[in-house]
Amino acid sequence: MSKIRVYTLNRNNMKRLSLAIIFACCTLTVAAQEDGFRVNYQGAKPTIKDFALAYITSLISEAEECDEEGMSLYENLQDAIKCQTKGLPLEANRTLTIDQKNGFLVYEHKYVEHLGRIEMCYWNETDGKHKLFACNRWSFENGKLCPATNWKGYHCHYVGR
User: Would you state the pLDDT for residue 8?
Assistant: First the structure.
């Protein structure tokens, strides 16, 4: 016969539990705040281009965990945004789709049998002062996903004014 240990919560245990929960929440809040980046923009509000350029700049300046292929793809996206802003055509193996109204961007760079794809988007927070920015990078070889070179899910950042 196995025994089950039952814990009761008395006042001291409740205080310890409450303090642990508060500490954990504060730690998560600070970690989320440090993960953000500053977006410079002109006009009434930032666009997805502003978010993309700021994010790429933060990746390059902080040398965040990203493989060489990933950094090259981000730098190519940065060049593509600048070309499109100046009204210059992109190279034939690159496509850049920007939905300014909905805050969404997709960039694809094809070379030989490889395709690199970056998706970026942002959402407005209810307070009107903060944004949630997400980025995902995919790599395909011969039409098949290359899991070893992909990030694990979306990278989300909380961005304030």
Answer: 47
